[in-house]
Amino acid sequence: MRLTCPLCGPRDRREFYYYGHEDYLQRPGPDAGPEAWDDHLHLRDNIAGEVRDLWYHETGCAQWLVVTRNTVTHEILSTELVADRKKKGVRA
Amino acid sequence: MRILGKGQIDRNRPVSFRFDGKSYQGYQGDTVASALLANDVRLMGRSFKYHRPRGVLTAGSEEPNALLEVVGATNQTPNVRATMQEIFDGLNTQSQNRFPSLSFDFMGVNDLLSQFLSAGFYYKTFMWPRAFWEKLYEPVIRRAAGLGRLSGKHDEGHYEKAYAFCDLLVIGSGPAGLAAALTAARAGADVILAEEDRELGGRLLADEPDLDGAPARDWVSSTEAELRSLPNVRVMTRTTVTGAYDNGTFGALERVGLHTPARADLPRECFWRIAAKRAVLAAGALERPIAFPMNDRPGIMLAGAVRSYLNRWGVTAGKRVTIFANNDGARQTARQLMAAGVEVAAILDSRTDATAIEDCPVYLGARVTDTSGRLGLRSISGAHVGGNFQIETDCLAMSGGWNPTVNLTCHLNGRPRWNVDIAAFVPSEGVVPGLSVAGSANGDFTTHACLAAGQAAAIEALAEIGVTAAAVPLPRAEGVPYAIQPLWLVEGKGRAWLDFANDVTSKDVKLSAQEGFTSVEHMKRYTTQGMAPDQGKSSNVAALAVLADATGRGIPETGTTTYRPPFTPVSIAAMGAGGRAMGFAPQRFTTSDQASRDRHAPMIEAGLWYRPSYFPKPGEKTWRESCDREVNMVRSAVGVSDVSTLGKIDIQGKDAARFLDLVYTNTFSNLPIGRVRYGLMLREDGLVLDDGTTARLDENHFLMTTTTAAAGLVMRHLDFIHQTHCADWDLRLISVTESWAQFAVAGPKARALLNAVLDAPLGDFPFMACGETQVGGVKGRLFRISFSGEEGYEVAVPSRYGESLFRDLVAKAEAMGGGPYGMEALNVLRIEKGFITHAEIHGRTTAFDIGMEKMVSPKKDCIGKAMAARPGMVGEEREQLVGLRLAQETKAFGGAHLFTQGAEVERETSQGYVTSVCWSPMFGATLAMGFLKNGRARHGEKIRIVDHLRDLDLLAEVCDPVFHDPKGEKLRA
Amino acid sequence: MRYSGWKVITQGLLGNKGWTPAWREPAPKAEYDAIIIGGGGHGLSTAYYLAKNHGLRNIAVLEKGYLGGGNVGRNTTIVRANYFLKGNQEFYSHSLKLWEGLEAELNYNVMHSQRGLINLFHSDGQRDAFARRGNSMINQGDDAILLDREGVREHLPYLDFEQTRFPIYGGLLHPRGGTARHDAVAWGYARGADRLGVDLIQNCEVTGIDIENGKVVGVQTSRGAIKAKKVGIVVAGRSSQVAAMAGMRLPIESHILQAFVTEGLKPVIHHVISFGMGHFYMSQSDKGGLVFGGDLDFYASYAARGNLPMVEHVMEAGMTLMPMIGRAKVLRSWGGIMDMSPDGSPIIDKTHIDGLYLDCGWNYGGFKAVPASGWCMAHLMATDQSHEVARRFRLDRFRTGHLLDEEGTGSQHNLH
Ligand SMILES: Cc1cc2nc3c(=O)[nH]c(=O)nc-3n(C[C@H](O)[C@H](O)[C@H](O)COP(=O)(O)OP(=O)(O)OC[C@H]3O[C@@H](n4cnc5c(N)ncnc54)[C@H](O)[C@@H]3O)c2cc1C
Ligand SMILES: [Zn+2]
Description:
The complex is a heterotrimer of chains A (92), B (973) and C (416). Chain A is α+β, with helices and mostly antiparallel strands. Chain A is built from 2 helices and 6 strands. In chain A, 36% of the residues are buried. In chain B, the strands form 13 sheets. In chain B, strands 8, 9, 12, 13, 14, 15 and 28 form a 7-stranded mixed β-sheet that branches. A 6-stranded mixed β-sheet of chain B has the order 41-42-43-40-34-44. Chain B contains 23 helices and 50 strands. Chain C is α/β, with parallel strands linked by helices. In chain C, the strands form 3 sheets. In chain C, strands 1, 2, 8, 9, 10, 11, 17 and 18 form an 8-stranded mixed β-sheet that branches. Chain C has an 8-stranded mixed β-sheet with strand order 5-6-4-13-14-15-12-16. Chains B and C meet through β6, α3, α10, α11 and β31 of B and α1, α3, α5, α7 and α9 of C. Bound molecules: flavin-adenine dinucleotide and zinc ion. The site of flavin-adenine dinucleotide has 39 residues of chain C, from α2, β12 and β16.
């Protein structure tokens, strides 16, 4: 399995650490309440098909990536830097 | 028998090898199978279940029968295919799965009992009495089962792993593969050509067709020469592509040193990870047998294999050969044998409409219904359109048609399609992104079509990656289409084998259908069809045809089972190359490593690091003696310890303080410059992630320390929080763990020792201060922190100066009655002081549990704060950190459970457990830490400690975990 | 038809013509009292105990493929009761007791082999953690023995005690731990359920769950609509998809776990060995193959197949721990889709929809749970009450914080 890091180019999967679905990007406010936090940390759509999930180029540039990927075929559709989204003002 | 003038072996280089203790002679270029056949040895193995005598069926890696043990000087390799093992002088092989000998095997009695050993019989019996399963039935079954033997000794062989990258990976070097490789090579693409065999050519070698009117070998040789001469081409022979993986990755096994006597400079095998932009699968096709009664005797072989032995090795597999086939292809075997002067008794063609014109008798509409010959074929009998036949023959060359080698196309869950014309499954298109299929692997069974398809596949694949390739002139070749009429099973009295290796017969498949195991996957699991070392390469399709028939379905509806990697079995050692001994994980050494070893300190693993356990002094016989001395030394004089393994993260930027407020439960933004603070970090789920100190070196510059174990984890966590939640903050983080060597100096004489090494004496430097310092002209950092409860400092210098500083500190400490201390003493010191480690913060503890809930600032948000407030995370039901104190010295009891005195000892009454234990020389008592239900309210209670495993039942007093200097006066001294 | 050695002999003499199907192939009825979605180990055992323990007769198991084709037929067959958290302990202990009577219960040889499981440890800290576990097991009434290095050597003399990267300090031996034949477990329960009248319906994919006024009334399937009073979702790696049909979002992420088997070998390994430090475990099947595996591939997936990094990692772990296996050749690798929960422990609970029940979150360890999971799920579906030994497997525990995190790795699904 190979992923293309936006900074480092195509790299072996071994260089990356996998975290989970992109739900982790939407951190609720401190008073959002237990449901919101449960949603954030535990509940998942867990789709069989196209998903967006978070990978860390741990032995590369130390950037966190959002990877658009198919969980059935393992096809990788796109990768982008998490930090870029934030800076571009995308509501994570 | 060897045929003069045939074959590509080097007759000038005789080679002798052993099989079952007997010495045989072959030639350079022979395999064990070809050499044994040349020596008229037909019996090469025993089957798995019935222990039936077996000979070689094929000439390739798909061989189900002729599996041997190769015996080396220190090790033996089981289940080696006689068809793949090249012979060399000194090669020693033996047969397997038989006792006492290959020709007489006691377990052959299973064959007589075969009617009771039908598919799945073991699910129906051996149930009573219960205890007999482990004691009797299972051991007997296990001994009878299995094939070859491992030696039980460490595999001392040398193996390698490697990566390779290319534009085009060509898998297989038959006509299609060579055409593809040549086309791509001339276009200048980066090409890898992988071929399982020791030579290029594929079936061009075995079939010897004419190309451009000359023997195919000529074209193969010239093509190989050209490919090898090109810098952009890597030709890999003896290399099997074993698996297709995601995004253009392939696994491949190269047999580097298995064909020669062991050589120090050659690994046995190399496992390759190939990243290919595009790939062409040209892996050819595999011939399939016909299931007819008693079709498993030595001497009954595949027709294509008989051709291979003749053309490649100059060997005839019999003196009087008979052909039994349902297709045209096998005719070639008869013709070539006759041309070589071998008698062909007859061609038995199952079809009624095939030609009967050959130079030998041809029976049409023929069926073989019985065979004879216990250890080797003697005769066959059967019927044909004109009546019955009985033929004396020592070799029956059969062909039930050919199966394209679709395996790799199915590794990513692709399913093959049924092609009626060739009565075989062919690959579905596009099922492995970037891989196309050409030649007989795709169902093209003529040389002409294979050459053309190989070329076209290469051109197309390269075009996709922007490389333009031109057609290269290809040799002229035959293009006679292949004609087949399916014949899967000849019914008759005896058993008809489908899966030779696992002894699955047509009866087993029918029985499985009769018992309701009608899905092909059920049939496979119930009968074990296709689960032997050959993975059913030659038998699966016939078996599912029999199943289809038994269930009244067609073959396409019945479908195939799943093809999985590896294509051919791969040794654990090859895929695990580099893992042996210390290779399994990196080793990390501190700068004081050598100095510690010089003092004979036993080094122990701390994560990937090595740290000294203790520093023995002459006369000390146990670790405890050294440990006690080191503890006393720190408490009374001064100790030095390398703490560089703790994670160090440098944090800078205008928003650095704000960031720390977010990641720590407590506040850092109000930390004055030049001060250090202890911090507690939670995971977002509210449980404790790590703890450590962070120093404020400047307004916008902090240095965080983490525990050794969590250094990587915390770095990743911080990067995550930074990049996802506050990427727009002015903030930079970097791990500087390896950049600094850091030493703890602790004890009443710590300040004196520092003053002896620092360039300037320490001035006012209170507890939790930090600042720059200088040692021998080298700039360093100094922190006043303590993990022992004594007055303590940590001094850090750039790593290159670590070793000399350590040696200097230790020497000067010794002069003051101090010295180095190791992990054991460090552990005692921290337990005495009630400091926690990952024994306590083990991933299930909250700040509340460890009594630090007050450190979760109510004034601000922090990571983990919301989830830490869940009802299940606080309250009396939770187990809280306590100290435990016992007057007596006892065996260690970490992991013991706590019980209220007088209560039953069982699951629900367990009140908690012990996490850390030590003998405290200072208190003359056994001290421990643990978690106790509602523990903080129970100080003073006597609690029962039960350790079933170490046979301990003790009473301890529950107390505050801080035993030593609870007010911290020493720290601040 | 009752199975016995005698039957095998008499049938053998008659040419094996008299064996009858292990189960019927019924067409789905219009309505059932209870429907179990998923014909894996847990679904089949749930149906079996619903019929056996609770007297329900009008039950169907709906399986989208063939019975036992999911994880129950692709696991590495380890059966153990070596947990240390209350909640897990009593459940797995109960399960092991059911295993010990399973052949007699089902009249099917599932080859449950209590050959002993050894968990190795490599530091004093790990030793104490395993001691805590072993003591918990004994408190529960199960068995555990703490072995030192020499003790391990007596059992497993072929490990590399001299130069392995993480030296062996000792091991925790669980004598009643072992293996079983995975397919036989599915088939045994299927045959048992069928004999009690349960309809096992294969090639029947559930595509929708019908709910009226907050109450389940039936399911939509590839073979038509079927009415039901109660529906149990027991679909392991597919739990999120099926629950979504009822509008639910589960605390589950699906991941691949790979496993491996070598070519057949004469007996060499007589235990189940677990090398936690290298994420590696191995046993030898009765057929002779070394059956082994390691950790997840770590990325969410429904592909039921994995990639080389984990393959190689597992092989490397094997080589550092027990280099004698080097010459064994891997015959086959495969993967299963694991229903990973945020604390690594399962869920057996009601849902907010009346009559809809959930059994999932088995992570990498649900094979050993097959008997008890069926037992407790049947109890729940029949009585609407959690069974005593499964009462902590609540669906809302992540929200409330009553976690069962044996690994201590936290809420990240793939770390368990
Ligand atoms: C490689 C591997 C190794 C493992 N090793 C062990 C081990 O050593 N010990 C251990 O205890 N556990 C182990 N496990 C875990 C264990 O196998 C699983 O936890 C357990 O089998 C899951 O429960 P199940 O048997 O019911 O699942 P499954 O067998 O997966 O059953 C679920 C069924 O639901 C069906 N289904 C899904 N969706 C639908 C639908 N919409 N309609 C109808 N049917 C549907 C599926 O087809 C499937 O048959 C391992 C798992 C794997 C993959
Ligand atoms: Zn990168």
